[in-house]
Amino acid sequence: MNTSATPAWPLPTLTLREGALWLEETSLEDIAQRFGTPTYVYSRAALESAFAAWKQALAGRRALVCYAVKANSNLGILSVFARLGAGFDIVSGGELARVLAAGGRADKVVFSGVGKTRAEMRQALEAGIRCFNIESAAELERLNALAGELGKQAPIALRVNPDVDPKTHPYISTGLKGNKFGVAFADALALYRQASRLPHLRISGVACHIGSQLLDPAPMAEAAEKLRDLVEQLAAEGIALEHIDLGGGLGIRYRDETPPSATDYLAPLLEVFAGRNEELCFEPGRSLVGNAGLLLTRIEYLKPGETKNFAIVDAAMNDLARPALYDAWHEVVEVRPCAASAAQYDVVGPICESGDFLARGRMLDVAEGDLLAILSAGAYGMTMSSNYNTRPRAAEILVEGSRALVVRERETVAELFSGERVAN
Question: Domains of the chain (ranges plus CATH)?
Answer without folding.
Answer: 14-43+290-416 (2.40.37.10), 112-284 (3.20.20.10)
